[in-house]
Amino acid sequence: MKHLLLVLLLPLFTAAFNPVQNDRNYQANIDLTNIVDDMVKVALVVPVLEVDEVIYDMPKIVPGTYKIYDYGQFVNDFKAFDSKGNELKFEKLNENQWRIFNAYELYKIEYWVSDSYDLSGNKIFAPAGTSIEEDAFLLNNFGFIGYLQELEDVPFTLEIDKPSSMYGTTSLQEISRSDAKDLFEAKDYFELHDCPILYAAPDTASILVAGMPITIGVYSKEGKIKAAEIRDALIPVFEAAATYLGGTLPAPRYTILVYGLTLRQSMSGTGALEHHTSTVVNMPDVNGNYLKMFGYENPMQMYRDIVAHEFFHIVTPLNIHSEQIADYDFINPQTSEHLWFYEGVTEYNSMISQARSGVVSFEDFLDEIKSKMEGSRRYNQNIPFTEMSKYSLSFFGNQFNNVYEKGALIGLAVDLKLRSLSEGEFGLINLLEDMWQVYGADTFFVDEDLFSILAAKSFPQMEEFFVRHIAGTQPLPLEDLFAEVGIAYVAKKEIDGISLGSMNVVFSKKNNGLMLSSIDAESAFAKEMKLEKGDILREINGVKIDFEENSHSAITAFYEVLGNIKVGETISINIEREEKDGVMKNLKLKGKAKAEKKTVFDSITINENLTEKQRTLRHFWINN
Ligand SMILES: [Zn+2]
Q1: Domain limits at 396?
Q2: Which of 8, 387, 448, 492 is 20 to 30 Å from the Cα of 527, by its Cα?
Q3: Ligand 1 mean position to 491 CA, how many Å?
Q4: Is 571 helix (H, G, I), strand (E, B) or coil?
Q5: CA-to-CA distance for 547 and 534, rounded, in angstroms?
Q6: Where is 455: in which H helix or E strand?
Q7: What CATH number is associated with residue 544?
Q8: Of the residues 146, 174, 200, the one at which a domain ends
Q9: Distance 117 CA to ligand 1 centre (A)
């Protein structure tokens, strides 16, 4: 029914976009002033063609996402016209491709595009998605505009009809702007796809860091996210990046598009996607106290970590990359086996640059490393990282997120190994700088050669290191590497501790309290205390578990009390338990803390008494 209605209605809204066709560029138009059934109209006047048939592609995948998204699924009511307005015949080949016949007559392609944010199930990562709302548009251009096969390298002009109340923030080169119409240009499809635009009520802020203009544009329905506040929080991050990168920043300009999500959308969408001169950031549209739920003491640190990561993607892979990325195929993507290099090294760079400049303390940096260690334990250790990367679009998809965990640890290990071999003077960033001199945005290396290239540019011993720990499955030698900078690291040890029956707690919204989500019922602790799964924990040893402030602080307080209990001490816990008839009953549970052997992973201690060598290496490494 909906579709029938569309066919009847749409011609009424046909905008008059009929520019003169030429043989030099595509001329695209997106009309944001007529939303019909949550869709906007796209018109594309193509370059003059001299072929019988041509295929129009919408991307199946875009760089940085590592997932098939099929942007063709958002195209509705596809039509192709000659210059007199007659419809040309076409056939739809698959979700993302249309074959148009009598292509030498082709003047214009028109269709209506729906957005990914309204897609049920939130299948597309929000920063790679598209949004069409009355008060905002997130134009990831690849979700609206495609290209003719073999003609990806032809320039585009992009005209946007827009509500006068909205401003479009983008890194795209602008030709002109007015109340009703903006005109942009891109040198080819790659650049068009690489420069998203955010249209919303104007809230922008700018700053110049190390000669690079940075612009922040925000969409916040609730008004909780402010461009100026984000700018102020990010200045130290960009200054730290400039210092780490030898004094300059590697882009002519940088635009940060922040799109606030509802809490419900945030559950599957928070994050960011990198581009050469911009990034799209999706954050919950809530105030700082809510952000603390994600474990950040300073909510702005969340923005810092996310933006630093995306920015360092300019180094890898945007400027140092293999052929799969250099000649990106939007329809038949090939994945590189070096995701450790693209995602892991990027994550590590964002962490170490902040630590070296003191934006993040040495202790907090090591805490973050520790959480990467814990995170990486959730993944299969017996798959070589290169193999996992290569098949991350298919059967190793569930291992992909390890690129941010173990991938970052690989970055750390490579950095420490290089520091060790060079007596401190040559680290990962120096190696990347040297690689950049040779490769850069327009050249590439062959995947199989990366290890030998990196070894040739640093130390021959590195090749074996890469083969063992990245192409092979030998654990990273972090104990030895950390020892060289005066850090005692023990991956796994047994200690005597009190038994807590491996209990886990979660926040229960229904009861506004901490709920026991799991406990080993056979453990001495569970038997002694008579705790049951589902119990709501209200008080432990006289300390109230208080949710006045937020759930994060309540959980922290709970673990603090638990952590201080000694063997033999009495534990008292006040709980509420739901009876069979649904009534909540208050109970006071009492018992004694029992000893047991416990396994502790990843203990990291900073030594203060350093040898001269350790002091030198630590200084070069972390600037401390
Ligand atoms: Zn990334």
Answers
A1: 315-484
A2: 492
A3: 27
A4: strand
A5: 18
A6: helix 450-456
A7: 2.30.42.10
A8: 200
A9: 21
pLDDT of residue 130: 96
Q: Calculate how far, in angstroms, residue 347's C-alpha sits from the geometric centre of ligand 1.
A: 7
In a domain, 350, yes or no: yes
**Residue that the structure tokens 């134009």 belong to:** 139
Q: With a cut of 50, which residues of the chain have pLDDT below it?
A: 1-14
Cα of 444 from ligand 1 centre, angstroms = 19
In a domain, 622, yes or no: no
Sign (positive or negative) of CA dihedral 429, 434, 435, 441: positive
The residues whose Cβ lies within 5 A of ligand 1, an ion, are 343
The Cα diameter of the chain in Å comes to: 90
The CA 104 to ligand 1 mean position distance, Å, reads 42
Is 600 inside any structural domain? no
Q: Report the C-alpha gap between 264 and 258 in whole angstroms.
A: 17
Tell me, in angstroms, the distance from the centre of ligand 1 to residue 402's CA.
12
Alpha carbon of 201 to ligand 1 centroid (Å): 28
Instruction: Say if residue 215 is in the same domain as residue 161.
Output: no
Domain ends where: 174, 200, 226? 200
Q: Indicate the helix (H) or strand (E) that contains 539.
A: strand 536-540
Distance 546 CA to ligand 1 centre (A): 37
In the chain, the number of structural domains is 4
CA of 222 to the centre of ligand 1 (A): 28
The pLDDT value given to residue 551: 60
- Within a domain: residue 614? no
Measure 298 CA to ligand 1 centroid, in angstroms: 22
